[in-house]
Specification:
Blueprint lengths: L1 H7 L4 H10 L3 H16 L12 H10 L8 E2 L2 E2 L1 H19 L4 H6 L3 E4 L5 H6 L9 H10 L6 E6 L4 H21 L8 E4 L6 H8 L3 E7 L10 E7 L10 E7 L6 H18 L9
Parallel strand pairs: 3-5, 4-5, 4-6
Antiparallel strand pairs: 1-2, 6-7, 7-8
Helix pairs in contact: 3-5, 9-11
Length: about 280
C-alpha cells in the first residue's frame, strides 16, 4: 500500500490540479496499457506486497498456472486480475461455441462427418448425441475410408474448437512422422464435428482398425482454452469401457508440447499393437 500511495500522491497541489483537469482518470488511463500487456503476455508475477517468504511464493508460481498471489485493492481483486479472468473466461466460451476453420481441415485432407449433436446447446445437454455418427456420416466414412487400417486417425472439435486450431498443425505431422518411423500404416483420416470421446466405438465398428487415435478438444478452463487430448484404443467397438482407453491430455504450449505429443502418440500406438491391448492393461 505504501508503494501504491507513493505512485498516486502528486508532487504538489498544482501538479495534482493540472493532472485532474487534463485527465480526470490519469491512473486508470496509465494502467490500461499495462493491463492489456499483462493479459496478452501471460506474465507470472505475484502482486502480494512484502510476502513473508518471497522465494517460496516464487517457487509456487513456477510450479502451477493457477491464480496465486493476485492480491487485492480494498475488498476486490486488482483490476488487471479481474480483466485477465474475464479474458480467459471469454476465451473458454468462444472455444465451446466456436468452429474449426475448414481451411485448416483442407490442409490435411480431412473430410467432415457429423454426429447427431444438432447444435451446441444440445451438445452440452445431451452428451450421448455426440457419440452417434449420422447416417450420412456413416455412409461417407464407408465410401471414403480404407477398411481395416492398422492405425485410424480421427480429429474432433469436442469441447474446444480452439484446441484443434492451436495444435493440429504441430501434432498431426509429428504423429504421421512417428508412425512412418515405426513402419506403421495409417488409414484415411477425417474430422468429426460435435464428437465425444466414445464416438471412437461406432467408428471402430465401421472401419475395424487395429488401433484408433482420436485427437479431440478438451473442456476449456481458465488456464487455457487450447488444450487437446489424444484418446487411443486397441480395436474399439461398441461396448468398449473407459478403462480400455489410453489418453494423453493437456496437449498445448503450456502443457505437453504438441510436437512432442505427436511423436509420443506414435510410440504408444506401437506398444498397443505389440501388446494387443490398451487402457489399464497396457504396459508403457
Amino acid at each position: 500500500m505504501a508503494e501504491l500511495e507513493r505512485k498516486l500522491a502528486p508532487s504538489n497541489a498544482a501538479t495534482a490540479q493540472t493532472a485532474k483537469t487534463a485527465n480526470p482518470m490519469p491512473d486508470i488511463a496509465a494502467a490500461l496499457p499495462e493491463v492489456a500487456e499483462s493479459i496478452t503476455d501471460g506474465e507470472r508475477i505475484a502482486h502480494v506486497p512484502d510476502p513473508k517468504w518471497e522465494e517460496g511464493l516464487g517457487e509456487l508460481l513456477a510450479s502451477t498456472p493457477a491464480r496465486i498471489g493476485v492480491w487485492r485493492c480494498g475488498t476486490r481483486p486488482l483490476t488487471k486480475e479481474v480483466l485477465r479472468f474475464r479474458c480467459d473466461h471469454a476465451a473458454a466460451i468462444d472455444s465451446v461455441y466456436g468452429t474449426v476453420d475448414s481451411s485448416l481441415l483442407d490442409e490435411f485432407g480431412l473430410f467432415t462427418v457429423e454426429t447427431r449433436f444438432g447444435n451446441t446447446e444440445n451438445y452440452l445437454k445431451r452428451p450421448d448425441m455426440g457419440r452417434i455418427v449420422t447416417d450420412e456420416g456413416v455412409e461417407r466414412i464407408r465410401s471414403r475410408c480404407a477398411a481395416k487400417p492398422q492405425v485410424q486417425v480421427v480429429v474432433s472439435d469436442g469441447l474446444s474448437a480452439n484446441a484443434v486450431e492451436a495444435n493440429l498443425r504441430d501434432v498431426y505431422p509429428s504423429l504421421m512422422d512417428s508412425l512412418q518411423a515405426y513402419g506403421l500404416s495409417a488409414g484415411t483420416p477425417f474430422f468429426v464435428r460435435g464428437g465425444r470421446v466414445a464416438v471412437m466405438d461406432p467408428i471402430g465398428d465401421i472401419l475395424q482398425p487395429e488401433v484408433l487415435v482420436l485427437l479431440i478438444g478438451e473442456r476449456p478452463g481458465l488456464v487455457t482454452s487450447q488444450s487437446m487430448s489424444a484418446y487411443m484404443c486397441y480395436r474399439p467397438r461398441r461396448g468398449t469401457v473407459e478403462s480400455d482407453r489410453t489418453v494423453i491430455s493437456n496437449i498445448h504450449r503450456g502443457g505437453t508440447p504438441p510436437v512432442e505429443a505427436g511423436a509420443y502418440i506414435g510410440t504408444v500406438l506401437k506398444k498397443m499393437l505389440e501388446q494387443r491391448t490398451s487402457g489399464v492393461n497396457l504396459e508403457l
